[in-house]
């Protein structure tokens, strides 16, 4: 009996331990996860006592580093040389954002499946086939040959690893505990992966297959009418019209008419290699920046503003930091994983970036000799291909997944148009594969003192092309459409290119100093909002489509009218909710509705819209109706002509749609070809108006405060995992929208708002949604969110020495060499 | 007394050792030291659960439940305190059964029933 009981209780205990020590996906192993000695409870953090002074002894430091934290949790790093400076940046960034760094580099490198299993295999395959590793390796080689980037990468890496090394499992960020894996050592190539990821986010799309499908259906003439290379209705280009292009122009490569696939099949975007189609260009990823000159500001010095719009996440994509060394003192936001500050200011200059959207991602149709794909036809000869083996380890599977990727001189052959059997036959030519050292641009901007330093820094930059806005305390303002931009014939890459013809290759680059730029323009300000880089007088082709013009138009109108500006004037412009789109279109739509008999419900909506001030404010119901209506109107016009699931086609742009409605009301496109009746513009307007009210009623019931714009838009900020909902931000109340200066959509928006008043000492303000810490158990996880949501900014504390006495300073950390 | 020894010893060992040391400490203590049968389960249960609850509550408290309340929601629990009770229950069960196992193994090596209170109790 005793024996039975002894065995029984030993067995129960052992069984419990076994069950609790084993992960039950998606749940982690409950024993270690729940134990207060090593599990989730350990990730609870309290507010650090401002008087705390900690000293750490660390390997491979060269000298002492002092880090002061302010009460927002921002580190101010004081080092005596570059190596130590970036060492400390790596150490501190890892302390706050280690899991983010791990996840983002894994995503870029196609290594998510190692920790997440088969569910992410297709994502990893996409990264591998796109050649993210190929690009990162090429860039690392270049970076390691320049002593400045080499020092920064090695310092940063040593710092991150110094942090990782002293972690016990109980100290791992909560996401490691939830997913049941360990942080691995950081490598310099991870920084390159982060840069690749940025290039992918901002310049990793193409729509030439969809354009080629449309070309095939409608022919060149119609396509030229519907897809013009410059907005037809309205535009306010980044480089003001009238700016002189006084440089010796390079000859433009000879144009080649677009290829139209000869076979009867339309080009399918469905890759036959099981890849989902890459997402088409989407609106919402873009940014605003501007600088007003001394004559427009009350301070007598320029003021600069920037708000990059990206998918908002927790933790934020940005991390605030001040970096101070004997020849550098810079404050701004960094990207975890990349040494230096990406957007910021120092004692003399400030800069910011918005995306250019240059066409630096092209697809080439490849003619292979046979299905072995060892040779491809180019320049009238068979040229050998190269192969790169990609090996993806998948959690829970013994054998890794292997795939051979074929490379031509264009790039990896990964997509298929369905004309080469099961095999991919479309090569990608992408700026992400171009070796370069974009890091040096940021490094030199961090140290820049003058306008010339800024211009020189930009020449190192490869991609993703950015509009770099600039201001300095010598009262210069400038903006440069900057990046390595291929020299192309007009519309080269608008449609699928011929991979066998040298005439379709990229023909070198637009010389860096000939990229569109303007310094101290007569209008007294510079700005960009992703719209057309320059008007049609600029001699080179950059792209045929840019972000719609409304944000740029609004910013330029307000800056034009602005006098005696201070930081707060620019902050208010960042929060501007005015809809240029509604101003342009709505009066016409409402006058059309007036010709129809309306039901009481429709009348009520009509009255609301007629009285609307075009402000997409959070409480506006009119904004909800208009924002629901406009996309439905576009679909009502174009769906019958352009919707084609088996061979997706590009839709005409917003500007083109507006032009059609306002200037070409009798065009055939208003007729729905799927009905026997002949629809006209008024029919389409009336039907889509009705449909928008139905849509809102279906979602939110009869018209009520539930129809307010913030509730209809329902903006949210998700945890980076996108799946751990309790780590998301609480529901947000925001206005704005995708065509609005305050570009807050459901999931994308101002990921960092910064305003810098230049002057003898800079005064700067900034905020992002979230907080410095990536730990949901930290008081610094969401501490900046409320202020951001209200459109307010924090004054940024710019220290000149580590022992400076200023308010809002908190604890300090001293790193010493062991 | 056994309860205190288990609580203190397990708390100290858990700082260095893996979590499953909580399945060993009650076993060893109740194998080594005599104890009355009826309370054995609760001695082991409490010896592990009490330090878990106290330490967990401290961490919940200093962070105002920032993490525990969120993780609780992952497990479909309304708040961190409930997650803490589940935590205590799970630790306690391991401790309780481990203690019982130790007690009965000790009985195997004895001819007579154990006295109700040991010499040191």
TrEMBL record, chain A:
SUPFAM superfamilies: N-terminal nucleophile aminohydrolases (Ntn hydrolases)
Protein's name according to its UniProt entry: Penicillin amidase
Name of one Pfam family that matches: Penicil_amidase
EC number: 3.5.1.11
Membrane-spanning intervals of the chain: none
Gene3D superfamilies found in the cross-reference section: 1.10.1400.10, 2.30.120.10, Glutamine Phosphoribosylpyrophosphate, subunit 1, domain 1, Penicillin Amidohydrolase, domain 1
Coiled coil: none
Keyword tags: Hydrolase, Signal, Zymogen
GO molecular function, one term: penicillin amidase activity
Keyword hit for Signal: yes
Keyword Glycoprotein: no
Organism phylogeny: Bacteria, Pseudomonadati, Bacteroidota, Cytophagia, Cytophagales
Family that this chain belongs to: Belongs to the peptidase S45 family.
From TrEMBL, chain B:
Keyword Transmembrane: yes
Key words, A-Z: Membrane, Transmembrane, Transmembrane helix
Record field: transmembrane: 6-32, 39-58, 81-105
Name by which UniProt lists this protein: Transmembrane protein
Species for this entry: Dyadobacter fermentans
Lineage, opening ranks: Bacteria, Pseudomonadati, Bacteroidota, Cytophagia, Cytophagales
């Amino acid at each position: 009996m005793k024996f039975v009981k002894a065995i029984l209780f030993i067995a129960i205990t052992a069984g419990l331990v076994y069950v609790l020590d084993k992960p039950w996906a998606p749940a982690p192993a409950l024993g270690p996860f729940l134990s207060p000695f090593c599990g989730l409870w350990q990730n609870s953090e309290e507010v650090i006592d401002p008087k705390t002074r900690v000293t750490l002894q660390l390997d491979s430091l060269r000298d002492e580093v002092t880090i002061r934290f302010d009460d927002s949790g921002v580190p101010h790093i004081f080092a005596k040389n570059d190596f130590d400076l970036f060492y400390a940046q790596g150490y501190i960034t890892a302390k706050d954002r280690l899991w983010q760094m791990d996840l983002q580099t894994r995503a870029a490198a196609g290594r998510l499946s190692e920790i997440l299993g088969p569910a992410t295999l297709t994502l990893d395959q996409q990264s591998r086939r796109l050649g993210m590793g190929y690009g990162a390796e090429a860039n690392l080689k270049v970076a390691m040959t320049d002593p400045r980037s080499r020092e920064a990468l090695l310092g940063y890496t040593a710092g991150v690893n110094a942090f990782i090394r002293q972690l016990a499992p109980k100290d791992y960020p909560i996401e490691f505990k939830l997913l049941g894996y360990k942080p691995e050592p950081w490598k310099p190539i991870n920084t390159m992966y982060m840069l690749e990821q940025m290039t992918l986010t901002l310049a990793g799309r193409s729509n030439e297959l969809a354009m080629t499908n449309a070309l095939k259906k409608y022919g060149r003439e119609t396509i030229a009418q519907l897809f013009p290379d410059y907005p037809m209705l309205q535009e306010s280009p980044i480089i003001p019209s009238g700016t002189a292009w006084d440089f010796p122009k390079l000859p433009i490569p000879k144009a080649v008419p677009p290829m139209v696939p000869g076979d009867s099949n339309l080009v399918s975007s469905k890759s036959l290699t099981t890849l989902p189609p890459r997402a088409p260009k989407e609106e919402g990823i873009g940014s605003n920046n501007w600088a007003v000159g001394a004559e427009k500001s009350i301070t007598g010095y320029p003021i600069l503003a920037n708000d990059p719009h990206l998918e908002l996440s927790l933790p934020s994509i940005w991390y605030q930091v001040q970096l101070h060394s004997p020849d550098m003192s810079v404050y701004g936001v960094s990207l975890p994983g990349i040494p230096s500050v990406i957007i910021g200011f120092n004692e003399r200059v400030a800069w910011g970036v918005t995306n250019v959207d240059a066409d630096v991602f092209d697809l080439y149709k490849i003619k292979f000799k046979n299905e072995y794909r060892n040779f491809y036809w180019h320049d009238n000869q068979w040229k050998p291909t190269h192969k790169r083996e990609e090996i993806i380890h998948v959690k829970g599977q013994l054998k890794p997944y292997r795939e051979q990727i074929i490379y031509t001189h264009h790039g990896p052959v990964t997509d298929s148009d369905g004309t080469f059997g099961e095999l991919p036959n479309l090569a990608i030519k992408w700026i992400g594969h171009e070796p370069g050292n974009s890091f040096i641009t940021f490094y030199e901007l961090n140290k820049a003192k003058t306008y010339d330093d800024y211009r020189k820094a930009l020449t190192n930059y490869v991609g993703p092309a950015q509009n770099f806005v600039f201001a300095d305390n010598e009262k210069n303002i400038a903006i440069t459409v900057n990046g390595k931009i291929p020299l192309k014939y007009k519309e080269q890459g608008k449609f699928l290119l011929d991979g066998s013809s040298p005439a379709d290759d990229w023909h070198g680059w637009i010389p860096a100093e000939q990229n569109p730029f303007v310094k101290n323009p007569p209008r007294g300000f510079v700005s960009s909002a992703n719209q057309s880089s320059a008007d049609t007088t600029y001699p080179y082709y950059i792209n045929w489509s840019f972000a719609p013009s409304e944000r740029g138009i609004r910013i330029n109108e307000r800056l034009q009218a602005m006098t005696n500006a201070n930081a707060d004037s620019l902050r208010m412009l960042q929060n501007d909710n005015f809809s240029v789109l509604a101003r342009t279109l709505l009066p016409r739509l409402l006058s059309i509705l007036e010709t129809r008999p309306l039901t009481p419900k429709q009348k009520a909506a009509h009255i609301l819209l007629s009285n609307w001030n075009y402000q997409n404010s959070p409480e506006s119901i009119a904004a909800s109706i208009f924002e629901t209506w406009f996309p439905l109107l576009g679909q009502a016009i174009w769906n019958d002509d352009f919707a084609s699931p088996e061979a997706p086609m590009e839709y005409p742009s917003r500007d083109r749609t507006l032009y059609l409605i306002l200037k070409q009301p009798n065009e055939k496109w208003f007729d729905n070809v799927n009905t026997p009746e002949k629809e006209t513009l008024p029919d389409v307007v009336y039907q889509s108006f009705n449909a928008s009210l139905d849509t809102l009623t279906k979602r939110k019931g009869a018209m009520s405060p539930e129809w307010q714009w913030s509730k209809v838009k329902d903006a949210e900020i998700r945890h980076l995992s996108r799946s751990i909902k309790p780590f998301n931000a609480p529901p947000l109340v925001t206005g704005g929208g995708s065509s609005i200066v305050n570009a807050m959509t459901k999931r994308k928006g101002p990921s960092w708002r910064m305003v810098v008043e230049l002057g003898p000492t800079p005064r700067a303000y900034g905020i992002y949604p979230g907080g410095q810490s990536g730990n949901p158990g930290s008081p610094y996880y969401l501490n900046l969110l409320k202020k951001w949501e209200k459109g307010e900014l924090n004054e940024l504390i710019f220290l000149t020495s580590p022992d400076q006495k200023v308010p809002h300073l908190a604890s300090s950390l001293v790193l010493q060499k062991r | 007394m056994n309860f205190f020894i288990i609580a203190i010893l397990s708390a100290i060992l858990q700082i260095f050792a893996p979590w499953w040391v909580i399945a060993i400490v009650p076993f060893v203590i109740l194998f080594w030291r005599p104890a009355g049968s009826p309370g054995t389960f609760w001695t082991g249960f409490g010896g592990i659960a009490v330090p878990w609850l106290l330490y967990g509550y401290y961490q919940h408290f200093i962070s105002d439940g920032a993490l525990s309340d969120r993780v609780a929601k992952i497990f479909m629990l309304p708040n961190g305190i409930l997650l803490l009770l589940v935590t205590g229950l799970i630790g306690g069960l391991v401790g309780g059964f481990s203690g019982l196992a130790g007690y009965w193994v000790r009985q195997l090596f004895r001819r007579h029933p154990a006295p109700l209170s040991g010499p040191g109790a």
